[in-house]
# Entry
Amino acid sequence: MHELLELSLRHMQGRLFELSVKKGFASVEFINTFMRSKCAAALDMDFNKLQWLGEAYIMAELIDEAGDKLVPGEQYPKDALFWAGYIYRYWHSHTGECSKDILKQASAERVLLGYPYYHTVAEEIAIKDMKEETARRLARKKRTDVVKGDFTVDLIPALRLR
# Structure
């Protein structure tokens, strides 16, 4: 995809996330709903008419698709939301990963709470850091999933006892 189009899509998705505040939607729920939506999947495509229609149109489409999941609630600052929308779209354009898979690696909560740090570093570094944290979290989860009776036992201490 052409770099100028990718930049335009990143800015449009950032403005879409900002628009969620004006609509009164809870930020985390909005991001989760959008990133799993048909609208996000359409933006992930090499070409789709939705890419040319702007954030207001995409918001209307998203409300039609998943309106009951878009609820009022806690809202994050617009600058954090813009950046979240921007970085998620940047992630897709530089890795080719789909929005649903990106969300699995970088939850809305993590991106928004990490905004004070992540927005000050290069996009590639922010993405690399989030991917590495996900890998560490999954490795820890694999080490702790041994069940004995009604409780989970951490494998690391169990191995040290031997």
